From TrEMBL:
Protein name: DNA-binding response regulator/ompR family protein
SMART domains cross-referenced by the UniProt entry: REC (SM00448), Trans_reg_C (SM00862)
Keywords per UniProt: DNA-binding, Phosphoprotein, Transcription, Transcription regulation, Two-component regulatory system
InterPro entries from the UniProt entry: CheY-like_superfamily (IPR011006), OmpR/PhoB-type_DNA-bd (IPR001867), Sig_transdc_resp-reg_receiver (IPR001789), WalR-like (IPR039420), WH-like_DNA-bd_sf (IPR036388)
Domain of life: Bacteria
Source organism per UniProt: Halomicronema hongdechloris C2206
DNA-binding region listed in the record: 126-224
Alphabetized PANTHER family for the sequence: REGULATOR OF RPOS
One GO BP annotation of this record: regulation of DNA-templated transcription
Gene3D superfamilies, per database record: 3.40.50.2300, 6.10.250.690, Winged helix-like DNA-binding domain superfamily/Winged helix DNA-binding domain
Residues of the OmpR/PhoB-type domain: 126-224
GO MF: phosphorelay response regulator activity; transcription cis-regulatory region binding
Gene Ontology terms: cellular component: cytosol; protein-DNA complex
Sites of 4-aspartylphosphate modification: D53
């Protein structure tokens, strides 16, 4: 299941822009346009992460955050605000926010922060990953599709594991290269395409449906 993200932002154009970017990355996104609606959505929908504007009609983002923490909610909260003074940052963090992004911001930075916070709340003991009829065992490093066992090389396994940890999320080539091959990789820039082709040949050896889809000009996504 894709991570659920709640955006609480009264600037409709900005909210729509962030919603589209997050949806494109494969997240399930809900938008609330004021503090009270955001607080109710957070309580009713139990999101995995909240992107929360500071200055809004009715309840401010800081007050929404305080009320959520008062109920015992530990959902990660990223505050969006034009306030950049140290005192403002301290106030937001003291209210229970986990992170702070100053407007105007880079969408790439916001997406990176979202990924970082979601990684922290992912269960670390999920040894079995499954998507459609594809199953990957992290402990034994075995892979199967339906009743068919699939032999993978170490790097093929690592690449498939990364795709399965982020199902339905569009993963850029740069991100795949960083996460699977490492930041210091200096090899052939076409290495990802080569390994995707290897994986497809093995996963579709008996004419099974394609699961690793190409997003032209961007990267790849695991979806059925």
């Amino acid at each position: 299941m894709a991570p659920r993200i709640l955006i609480v932002e009264d600037e409709e154009k900005l909210a729509k822009f962030v919603e589209l970017e997050l949806s494109y990355e494969g997240y399930e996104v809900t938008v609330a346009n004021d503090g009270l609606a955001g607080l109710m959505a957070a309580r009713d929908q139990d999101p995995d992460l909240i992107i929360l504007d500071w200055l809004m009609p009715g309840l401010s983002g800081v007050e929404v955050c305080r009320r959520l923490r008062a109920t015992g909610s530990q959902v990660p909260v990223i505050l969006l605000t034009a306030k950049d003074d140290i005192g403002d940052r301290v106030e937001g963090l003291d209210a229970g926010a986990d992170d702070y992004v100053v407007k105007p911001f880079s969408i790439e930075e916001l997406l990176a922060r979202v990924r970082a916070h979601l990684r922290r709340i992912q269960p670390q003991d999920a040894d079995m990953l499954q998507f459609s009829d594809l199953i990957l065992n992290r402990k034994t490093r075995e892979v199967s599709r339906g009743q068919r066992s699939i032999e993978l090389t170490a790097k093929e396994f690592d690449l498939l594991e990364f795709l399965m940890v982020h199902p339905k999320q569009v993963l850029t080539r740069d991100r795949i290269l960083e996460e699977v091959w490492g930041y210091d990789f200096m090899g052939d820039s076409n290495i990802i395409e080569v390994y995707i082709r290897y994986l497809r040949l093995k996963l579709e050896a008996e004419d099974e449906k394609r699961l690793i889809q190409t997003v032209r000009g961007v990267g790849y996504v695991l979806r059925d």
